[in-house]
């Protein structure tokens, strides 16, 4: 297990704890509509922060890491045009071999 996974889980749990505390302000305990409106916006901002910081940050860093390792690999880079020409050439050779086989069989 990656050590970052444990930290990510802890950060997510903290955000959900804060969001859970926001829920108390939406009950009849708080009678002020303006306060409920402000708490609602706070709830939205905390939710967006939870999405952006740990989760989106983790996805972007892993994506950048994979792209970097793929570009830095020692494997030969395949030219798409060459790959298509080789594929077409192979198909033509297969058809020629198939045609010759049928001609020889008759």
Counting helices, strands and paired strands, the structural category is mainly alpha
Q: Report, as a whole number of angstroms, the end-to-end distance.
A: 64 Å
User: What is the residue-mean pLDDT, rounded to a whole number?
Assistant: 81
Sheet having the most strands? none
Helicity level: over 70%
Overall outline: elongated
The gyration radius over C-alpha positions equals 30 Å
Low-confidence stretches: none
Order of helices and strands: HHH
- Quote the beta fraction: under 5%
Number of helices: 3
Q: How many domains comprise the coordinates?
A: 2
Which labels suit this protein?
106 residues, mainly alpha, 2 domains, elongated
Short structural summary:
The chain contains three helices and no strands.
Q: Which helices and strands appear, and what pairs or packs with what?
A:
Blueprint: H1 3-24, H2 33-71, H3 80-105
Helix pairs in contact: 1-2
Describe this structure in words.
The protein has 106 residues and is mainly alpha-helical. The chain folds into 2 domains: 3-75; 78-106. The protein has helices at residues 3-24, 33-71, 80-105. The termini are far apart.
């Amino acid at each position: 297990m990656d050590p970052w996974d444990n930290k990510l889980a802890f950060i997510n749990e903290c955000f959900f704890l804060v969001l859970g505390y926001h829920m108390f302000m939406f009950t009849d305990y708080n009678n002020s509509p303006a306060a409920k409106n402000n708490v609602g916006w706070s709830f939205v901002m905390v939710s967006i922060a939870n999405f952006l910081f740990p989760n989106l940050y983790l996805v972007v860093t892993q994506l950048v890491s994979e792209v970097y390792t793929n570009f830095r690999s020692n494997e030969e880079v395949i030219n798409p045009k060459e790959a298509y020409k080789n594929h077409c050439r192979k198909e033509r050779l297969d058809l020629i071999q198939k045609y010759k086989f049928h001609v020889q069989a008759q």
